[in-house]
Design brief:
Layout: H1 3-7, H2 20-26, H3 30-52, H4 55-71, H5 82-99, H6 119-138, H7 141-152, H8 157-164, H9 168-193
Length: 194
């Protein structure tokens, strides 16, 4: 079973076209910056949540990402903002994890619940998401960033390599190692549950 199937969430819809809002925000229009934040807030928050595991930490990281965007808007040279935001989100999350001295509780990845949803299915999916979140937290930081960007965010190996400043071979290796570790963790986790 793929990691995407385990999370029961699809990759983010990433704006692929150059944003007029980006150019307007660079020109000093606050409404355009607000639009940029609205367009990318889910991408940043979900990436941070997957990297950090706690909603409160992810929200703090998202605020820091958009603060950095605002401060460095004139230096953003890419016409498409998503790769820059991914890179900054990974860096902010890395900084936050280094600063955290305590091990925090893991929260489930949020998911809307349908009114007619099957309670048994919901319980099973919630358990899978919880197990995946736990397995992600156990990975070394570079492997976690690579697997989150590649498998959960749905980016190509080339895009992940650019964002992380690595070679494609390194990203493929990190993703492969992470998949093996996650698979092993999940097998042990669910074997204990049965």
């Amino acid at each position: 079973m793929s990691l995407l199937a385990l999370t029961a969430t699809a990759p983010m819809d990433i704006p692929e076209e150059p944003s007029r809002a980006l150019e307007s925000a660079k020109a000093g229009e606050l409404a355009a910056f607000d639009q940029l934040m609205r367009e990318h807030e889910r991408l940043v928050l979900m990436t941070a949540l997957r990297l950090l595991g706690r909603l409160e930490d992810a929200q703090d990281a998202s605020q820091e990402v958009f603060l950095r965007l605002y401060r460095h808007l004139s230096k953003v040279e890419t016409p498409v903002l998503a790769p820059w935001l991914y890179r900054v989100t990974v860096n902010v999350c890395h900084d936050m994890r280094r600063k955290q001295a305590h091990s925090a509780d893991i929260e489930d990845l949020p998911e809307p619940i349908a009114a007619d949803a099957d309670p048994q299915r919901l319980t099973t999916e919630a358990e899978r998401r919880r197990a995946l979140a736990m397995s992600l937290r156990m990975l070394p930081e570079k492997e976690r960033a690579a697997i989150v960007l590649r498998d959960l965010e749905g980016l190509s190996t080339e895009e992940v390599a650019r964002i992380l400043g690595s070679s494609e071979a390194t990203v493929r290796s990190q993703v492969s190692k992470a998949r093996v570790k996650i698979r092993g963790f999940l097998e042990r986790y669910f074997r204990r549950r049965v």
